[in-house]
Structure formats: structure tokens, C-alpha cells
Amino acid sequence: MENSPEVAVLRLGHRPGRDERMTTHVGLTARALGADRLFVEPAAAGAEGTVSEVTDRFGGPFEVESTDSPKTVLRDWEGATCHLTMYGLPVQGVEGEIRKAHREKPLLIVVGAEKVPFSVYERADWNLGVTNQPHSEVAALAVFLDRLFEGRELDREWAGAIRQVVPEATGKTVESVEK
Questions:
Q1: Is 166 left (phi over 0), alpha (psi -120 to 50) or beta?
Q2: CATH code assigned to 7-176
């Protein structure tokens, strides 16, 4: 995390009306569990706004960037690329190799919304499954980020927060951050 190369998430595809909550949850999960940046398509402007607003209130750093050409982001990425798919290799078999690669170069995590073109499978350094059973891309991203960072993301410090959640056994408290 700190002092390591960037981790970015590319949300590949977005079906308006159908994917709004899912794309938002991909962004919120990426932010909360250690990624530095999210790329989304312009059709996901609502999700982009929500994730940016959460970052403004609860801290960062985290950036959301709209791109007209996610395939160009993938093609031009200068670093390692991991595509999350239930058809991929089991995470537990390659997580060490991915962590080692990430120590040396940025990592792009591709999370599909609709049928992913075969070219993505070919471009990825790893096609990775957190399980080979049907599941949510949000769950796959959460498990993968936790494996990548080995739990360190759970103790992350948040800069610029104006609100914070107060951990407690019962109840739901959100308070202003005292400067």
C-alpha cells in the first residue's frame, strides 16, 4: 500500500439502469480495500459521482477517472494486469506471484460488467478466479484486494476525511472528524 506502486481498477462495461449499484459498489470496495484509482465509462457518471462524494466525506486518497476508451486504458497500461473472472486460475495459487510483481510495478485489476471480450483474457497477465463458482464481481474484488495486501488495507489511514464511522459492537455512529 504505502510506498508500493499504484493499484487501479478498471470497470469494463456499464449497462445503464442495470449496473448502477454494482459499479458504485465496485468503486466503494476498491477505495475501502486499498486501490488508488478507479476507471469507469462515461455511462457510469452516477457511480463516479457517488464514489467521489464518499471519498470527499470519508477521506482518501482515491481517484475516479472517466474514460471513453477502457480498452485503451487496458492496452496502454504500463504494469501488470489481473483480470478477475470465475474462469481464471485460483487466487490461492498465484497470489504470491502477483504480490511480487506488484512490488515492482503498478497493477491494473479488470472487473467486467458484461460479457468480457476474449482480447481481455489474452492481454491480462493473470486471469484470476477467487472461486470457480458464479459470484459477484464485488466479492471477487474484495477477496482479491485482501489477498493482495494481506490484510494491511484494513488498518489504512484516511487523509482529508470530514466524517468517520465509530466502530462499536451495536449501533451506527458517524461523526465529524475533529481537526
A1: beta
A2: 3.40.1280.10
Residuewise pLDDT in 10s, the chain (179 residues): 667 899 999 999 877 777 889 999 999 999 999 999 999 999 888 999 999 999 999 999 999 999 999 999 999 999 999 999 989 999 999 999 999 999 999 999 999 888 899 999 999 999 999 988 888 899 999 999 999 999 999 999 899 999 999 999 999 999 999 75
DSSP secondary structure letter of residue 43: G
Cβ(91)–Cβ(144) below 8 Å: yes
Which residue, 65, 39, 33, 47, is CA-closest to 139? Answer: 33
The span from the CA of 173 to the CA of 104, in Å, is 40
Question: 145: which residues sit within 8 A by CB, 6+ positions away?
Answer: 7, 29, 30, 33, 34, 35, 109, 153
- Residue spans of the domains in the chain: they are 7-176
